[in-house]
Fold this sequence. Notes:
The chain is mainly α. 53% of the residues lie in helices and 3% in strands. It has helices at residues 2-18, 21-26, 34-57, 89-109, 115-118, and strands spanning 122-123, 128-129. Strands 1-2 form a two-stranded antiparallel sheet. α3 crosses α4 (89-109). It is elongated.
Amino acid sequence: NNNTNNNNNNNNTNNNDEDSILTRFTSPQIDDPGLPLADALLSQIVAPTLQLYWISFNRLPIPSWATSLPGTSASMGMLYNVPTQGSLVAPTLLHGAGLTLCWILGSLAARGYEVRAYDLNYDADQGQGKGQGQGQG
Length: 137
């Protein structure tokens, strides 16, 4: 009985090491390398662009992050200057970079890139997913 308690204590110690929030960022487990890339592309380019399209379609005021960059000629007297073609590209990419940083850090903190987070058929005992054609038969 004491041996069982010692094993449980050892397992708890290992789980505490694995559950350390710092290790989620310093040595993350990313089972599908395409996920962070897809997240970055969506959150940096697609999401802010769709947001600007939606705002323009509904004739709402442009958000402050989408205004021209400070120090450029378009930012001087923004009320009277007509935006030039492509004037939203740089602010959209900069805003998207901030979104991407928050999104990827949040996914690392939540262990969103581990297979058990996105594979509903993941079998923790066997350490593998049972997707189509796997683990059947």
